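User: New here, any thoughts?
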Amino acid sequence: MAKDRSTLLGKFRALEHDIQTLREQLDEESESKSDIHRQLSKANADIQMYRAQYESEGVAKAEEIDASRQKLQTRLDEAEQQIDSLNFKNTSLDKAKNRLLSDLEAMHVDCERASTQAAAAEKKQKNFDKIISEWKMKIDDLGAELDASQKECRNCSTELFRIK
């Protein structure tokens, strides 16, 4: 019985040792669990803080971005209207340019025609000047002949008068 008792006492002490080890493990696990709970609480607090920060800053930023987007959309619409207006002006200026080019071409043709007519008129004028100078020479010759014949006539008259 002493042997049984000593065996039981050995088993008892082994079990006490096992219990002690298990308690230590339970304490460690308990500490670890409380650490994990603290980390979870801290993570939840961080989540709440970030959520609040997002809701305050993120929503404000989203509203600011939306307002900026609205402004940009308005500016884009204004720019498109201005582009349409400028395109209309460009089209009307192109039409005016084409009209002016056709008028310029017509004027150029008229100018060439006038230059041709002026050259022809100048040529005729030169011919007329030539004819007029020939006629002047003929008139001068005839005037000289007339003067000579009148002089001769006077001489003849004088001589006739003398003879009579």
About this structure: Residues 37 and 43 are 9 Å apart (CA to CA). The first helix runs from residue 2 to 163.
